[in-house]
User: Fold this.
Amino acid sequence: MRICVISDLHFKYAQDTAEDRQNAELALDFLRSAAGKYDLLVLNGDIFDLWFEWKYTIVKQYFPLLHRLAVLGEQGCRLVLIGGNHDFWFKGFLTQYLGIEVQPDQFALEADGHRILFTHGDLHTVNDLRYKLFRSFIRLTGIRWLFNLLHPDLALSLGRKMSRSSRLRKISSQLQTKKSTGLIQYAQTRIRQNKYDVVCMGHSHKPQVNQLEGGYYVNSGDWLQNHTYVEIIDGAIALHYYKNKE
Ligand SMILES: [Mn+2]
Assistant:
């Protein structure tokens, strides 16, 4: 089976800088180049910098990305999307119109004799209590209901402020290390307890393939700095960097 995994595109609905636009273009180019190459594309969290859909409304700035995914789906590539910490308010649009299977937390699969687990990873960092509190708060039904009542333009400008502050926090390299450590520990536990051969995560924005005891920890990196993707072709794992930015 030909599997491709990407995560942390952080595709923005407000592309303010040249860098934002370049990152978005690279991601779209990559998805264009993926045509016909894979049986399964796993979108492992934080694909959208913020996802929200109202009863009659979706965010038009996501159209180019949605279009690319729709084309891949039509060509027969199975699409599975796992929620991240920026995109978890899914309501059915992606499944109904694009045929994407949406998984809130994780997705497991057996392919070519390997048991593979995919999960974004934001729940499994260590010493990140502040984030975990924020996560529970933002996922309260009341918050979702309030967001739903706001005019989309207003709701999205608020969302942009929240997303910006969470991104600024990501810059600290200490936090980066904390994130990776927690993810690797979590992967090791799942390999030991659930006999997974591969645990594939995102969130840390640190692309890597580590051999652990009994299996592999794989991180598909991000599309803000690294522009990385992971291929698992007939059981062989490979981490790739897409074109470097000019
Ligand atoms: Mn994340």
Observations:
- Residues 8, 45-46, 84-85, 120, 122, 203 surround manganese (II) ion (CB under 6 Å).
